Q: What sequence folds into this?
């Protein structure tokens, strides 16, 4: 086997050990050290605010059921409940979710703004 192949296999094993798929991370690190391989930086796991695929949609629908129809208001509610997202991130998530749901439709002319719920204008 070529050295490159062994090095790549060790790096792959190390990545899998970081993710919890294998035990013996120390042994893999020792082998990598013997071969002069630098381990890749450990990736931080991303914090998921809403686990699952439809969590954001359920949050938006619940806010709409409570009478909030403006996506800026819903974004501020999201930011209040999850301050780790940030105001701009909450705005972008809510806006994207409402676009995918078909609640907000883009007009042909960008200068006219965006059509909100019930045809009212919702400018960004």
A:
């Amino acid at each position: 086997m070529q050295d490159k192949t062994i090095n790549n296999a060790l790096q792959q094993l190390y990545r899998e050990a970081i993710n919890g798929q294998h035990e013996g991370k120390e042994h893999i690190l020792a082998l990598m050290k013997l071969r002069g391989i630098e381990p890749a930086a450990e990736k931080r796991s991303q914090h998921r605010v809403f686990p699952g695929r439809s969590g954001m949609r359920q949050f938006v629908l619940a806010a709409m059921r409570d009478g909030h129809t403006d996506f800026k208001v819903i974004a501020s509610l999201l930011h209040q409940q999850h301050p780790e997202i940030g105001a701009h991130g909450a705005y972008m998530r809510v806006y994207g979710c409402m676009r995918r749901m078909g609640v907000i439709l883009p007009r042909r002319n960008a200068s006219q703004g965006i059509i909100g719920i019930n045809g009212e204008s919702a400018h960004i």
